Amino acid sequence: MLVDTPVSEGVPIPHAVSRLRAERLARSAKPFMARGGIKGQRCSDCRLVPSHCMCSVRPELPVQAGMCLLMADIEPLKPSNTGWLVADLVHDTFAFGWARTEVNPTLLALLADPQWQALVVFPGEFAPPERVVHTVPAPHSGKRPLFILLDATWSEARKMFRKSPYLNALPVLSLNPEEISRYELRRSGRDDHFCTSEVAALCLALAGETHAARTLQAYLDVYTHHYLQAKHQLPPQWDGAAHAQLRALRIQAPHFKASVITKL
Ligand SMILES: [Zn+2]
Fold first, then answer.
1. Cβ proximity of 191 and 53 under 8 Å
2. Which of 3, 163, 189, 262 sits most deeply, having the most CB atoms within 10 A of its CB?
């Protein structure tokens, strides 16, 4: 393990995105004020105002795959960043700030770690065809998939993809949006692009971790609900559809087979 990850007992260690946010804040000359952000105190674990804190429903489940978030400079500071949710759910989530002129040696060590099969998640049309894959290769030699997600705006992500030579040797996992319906995932209607946690959910589904994929999607829905309710100064609906879906998934044991889950 290269980077500490949260533990479920005792005082939890802040996850990788939380630590990256703290590092980024420490470098800020002036306080970051998110556009449309909510002023006042926020929970340090879920980033919501205390009245809308959703830490009590944070899922805990075993996830085999790892996630490596390469985050654009300002991304860890955005209250709406969903890479944070990925780190909440996927135990082995790593997060690095991206810079054009330098690379974190810990990231290079992670990419070279033989326990992982790293895949860059990016549209295949931007990569040479020989690098592009559409499925997650079956585990071999005990390797676990490590999904590299470029957590940024689309224009930033394209620049990151082009100007990160250390990614050039890795396969490019190109996602087909049609796969969403196949895995019973769906868009949350946040904007025109898939957000980071939606992409991560699809990666988990492709890796065969359907329960984790659906849980991450449901967790995003709960986060979106709490975020918007807080923004509109309305209370969260703990008995609403988003929470009901997350509760239903929690009841299902992670070792349930996918064929059983789809019938529930
Ligand atoms: Zn909280």
1. no
2. 3
Residue for token pair 């609900």: 225
Look at strands 132-133 and 172-173 and give their pairing: parallel
Q: 263 alpha carbon to ligand 1 midpoint, in Å?
A: 32
Kindly give the distance from the C-alpha atom of residue 185 to the centroid of ligand 1, in angstroms, as a whole number. Answer: 25
Longest dimension (CA), the chain: 53
- Rounded to the nearest angstrom, the distance between the alpha carbon of 124 and the centre of ligand 1 is 37
Beta bridge partners of 69: 95, 149
Q: How far is the CA of 88 from the centre of ligand 1 (A)?
A: 11
Tokens of 77: 């500071």
* DSSP letter (8 states) at residue 184: T
Structure tokens at 110: 């992670």
Q: What pLDDT score was predicted for residue 252?
A: 80
Q: How far is the CA of 30 from the centre of ligand 1 (A)?
A: 25
Calculate how far, in angstroms, residue 56's C-alpha sits from the geometric centre of ligand 1. Answer: 7
Full-model pTM: 0.85
